[in-house]
Amino acid sequence: MKRSGRLTPPGAFSRRQFSAMSLGGLAAFAASPLMMRAAHAAGTEIAFWGTGTLDIGDAWAQTQSDIGLSVNFTDNGNDPGPIVARLVAGNANAVYDLSGLQGGAEKELAKQGAIVPWDTSKIANWDKVWQWAKDIPYLTDNGQQIGIPCVVNADSIIYRKDKLGLVDSYGVIFDPKLKGRVAMEDAWINSAIFAAIYLKGAENAPINDPGNLTEDELGLVMEFLIKHKRDGQFRTFWNGWEQGVQLVADEEVDAMTGWEPIVLEGQRRGLDVAYAEPVEGYEGWGNNLLLHKGAVDRGLGDAAHQLANWIYDGFYGAQLALSRGYVVPSDKNTEWAAGNLETAGADQVKSVVDHVAKKFSGKVYWQNTRPDNFQLYEEWWQKLRNS
User: Fold this and answer.
1) Same-domain pairing of 92 and 174
2) What residues make up the domain containing 200?
């Protein structure tokens, strides 16, 4: 028998679910920590501050029927600098209970006392989480589980298949024949590593780990990007989900580095866009769940563990597989889909899971939002913006 849990069709996701909350909404939300603490006192609501693509909109209602908790999701903007600052020195710990954040900042946040370790013995589905996902860098420190994997994927190149044929190299982004018809994201956490992967794999540049560049390696990569920017290679450095989708939908570019959900959205709009399997390798990433110290102080530690267990239970993973092409690294996704969806939906979930697993069977370089020289990354990126 099919469970009554509602699964939103892929095409039904609204712009709101992919966009940042308005500044006015954020201000009102952030300005009322006392109100939030009062709401938390009942122990029925978890305030989840995560990357926008982790949101499942109205489908969060399933947590109420499954585990008796409601989830209030707010987009954190996915920029690690401001997120870390608000957790350590701002009011985020007073307002939110969990973060969903790209991996790299966990040790810094733990050292500052902004997050606390998870107790995986309270997460019954932990044994269903893929071992390689448990082994992702950044998740442990001194034997403590300071983060747990929420979703995983590996990024590469979005391209117009009808115009370019098969693309299998980051070289398309730097091809002078496509001058003014390519783009990269205005974020070093993605664009610097893409350029480093290309230079290491295709140009034999002396780069060890594209996700954690030394000072000399970073200089090499950034001078390369600055030169191409000055030459007019890039139409733009895009910022945010909406602009990324719009570049593809308006046919402003033929290729760009970016996120796989943009490909899915382009395909839903009838465009012949595809996601490349680059010979140089993928940029792997994990968006990880972080337990805020404030949540534990408010007595919501056990409720947060309940939610984490629910995230691994299958429903949430099926939602993200169908809407984003992302995978919660748990065996429960396909199990849940097989028992609760019609054949077509279950097959689609399995296809997404298999697709992502295949990426990680090849060459992958891990994204790192807090590399050793991250402040130097920030300085170099500002030079690129000003060039």
Assistant:
1) no
2) 153-281+370-386
The reply to whether 2 falls in a domain is no
Note whether 19 and 111 are same-domain residues. Answer: yes
Indicate whether 24 and 141 sit together in one domain: yes
What was the pLDDT predicted at 81?
A: 84
pLDDT in tens, 107-142: 999 999 999 999 999 999 999 999 999 998 899 999
Task: Assess whether 233 and 258 both reside in one domain.
Answer: yes
What is this structure's pTM? 0.81
Q: What is the pLDDT of residues 325-369, one digit of tens each?
A: 899 999 999 999 999 999 999 999 999 999 999 999 889 999 998
Q: 206 lies in a domain?
A: yes
CATH number at residue 382: 3.40.190.10
34 vs 267, residue with greater confidence: 267
For the cut 50, the answer to whether the pLDDT of residue 194 exceeds it is yes
Angle in degrees, CA 194, 200, 201, rounded to 5? 90
- Are 203 and 335 in a shared domain? no
Q: Is residue 245 part of a domain?
A: yes
Residues 240 and 378 in one domain: yes
Residues 163 and 127 in one domain: no
Model confidence pLDDT, tens digit, residues 259-283 = 888 998 899 999 999 999 999 999 9
Residue 325 has a pLDDT of: 87
What per-residue confidence (pLDDT) applies to 297? 97
**165-179: average pLDDT:** 98
In the DSSP assignment, the letter for residue 114 is: S
Q: Do 84 and 168 have their domain in common? A: no
Domain tally, the chain:
2
